[in-house]
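Dock 4'-deoxy-4'-aminopyridoxal-5'-phosphate; give full complex structure.
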Amino acid sequence: MTDLGNLLEARNRHISKSLSIGHGKPLHIVKGEMQYLYSSDGTRYLDLVNNVCHVGHCHPKVVSAGQQQMSVLSTNTRYVYDGLTDYISRLSNTLPDGLDVGFMVNSGSEANELAIRLARAHTGNHDMLVADGGYHGNTSMLVQLSPYKFLGPGGKGVAEPWVHVVPVPDEYRRAGVDYNQEMKDVISNARNVAGFLIEPMLSCAGQIPLPDDYLKLAQTYTKEAGGLLIVDEVQVGFGRFGTHMWAFETQDVVPDIVVLGKSIGNGHPMAAVFTTSEIASSLGEMEWFSSTGGNPVSCAIGNAVLDVIEDEELQEQAREYGEYFLNGLRKLKDTYPVIGDVRGRGLFIGIEFVCDRDTLEPNAEEAGRVVRGMRDQGVLLSTDGPHHNVIKIKPPMVLTRQDIDMTLDLLNDVLSANGD
Ligand code: PMP
């Protein structure tokens, strides 16, 4: 049996079927290097999917920072060490004044759990608001709070009584709707509100940008109902939007709690929650501790990620290349009617496929065909959204103009081959 055959056989035996393989045909990946992944047969793939490896797969500065620290000290946050305080202060300095207290954990799910625990402790309320299509983590509670899961395949199809779902302010599919009123109605009909957990661009819902001032209003309405605004920056943070370090900054709002993850550790399991000292102190006498969250190795890696973002001016690059990518994709949209919409900010982009630009009937088949066709040409993409008809682009931020040109050319080839 081939290597891949053996791996798949073992995988089928020992790994849950609930964990599917991405990119259709299984890929046996053996090496990652900046924006590229290499398979066992030596093929190089441009990775346009992985926003976790934010500054590039195996970025040498990040690898070396982790290796070095691992050989010196790895302990826990009940000890005092430079790495932790340096790192938390540095992250806090990138956030608006007041968001001074950080908690270090190991995953975005853990961070969202803690954010909700803080909101509940601070407000004394229990219920949560969430945007439709949202995914916020893999724990029991977060699955109950993720419409992407409970309304998606295998879900129960209904929200728990403590979960209130705000419809997606989708300016493409639901043009003309008064999203603010709709949000206000859901919030004012909810009781006992502890918080509204929302992303600054709705990723799993299909790369949906929020209308101007949406988060600000979300905070106002939620506050009126007694709750806090929790912004989930797990997918979009760390400069990916190009114009700002944090995506919520494009909405002129200071959230009560901010959740960071994925790119924070460039693939090393890390996440963080930042909030005000007042909200942080709501846990009161009850101790909070994570055995590995904020350990010296994670802090060294997190610090190196911030160094690389600054030294290589990756936020500015996301702005410039994002614009360039979006313009190229908009040209493809002019040529191919199956592309109904191209949207995004910086290097967080969505291409929505439709059967018909008037009815907007979703075209998951064509989106899937393009993803498979691009994979065969060495470019990795994925689809998302409730209709699986949106191609997501969220690459390591170190990709080059040549990578973008190549992607646009290949997309043109694959799109023009429709019906062959
Ligand atoms: N929030 C968002 C917006 C996410 O996309 C994810 C993961 N895809 C999470 C939270 C959960 O993060 P993790 O997988 O690190 O637990």
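Observed: The mean pLDDT is 97.
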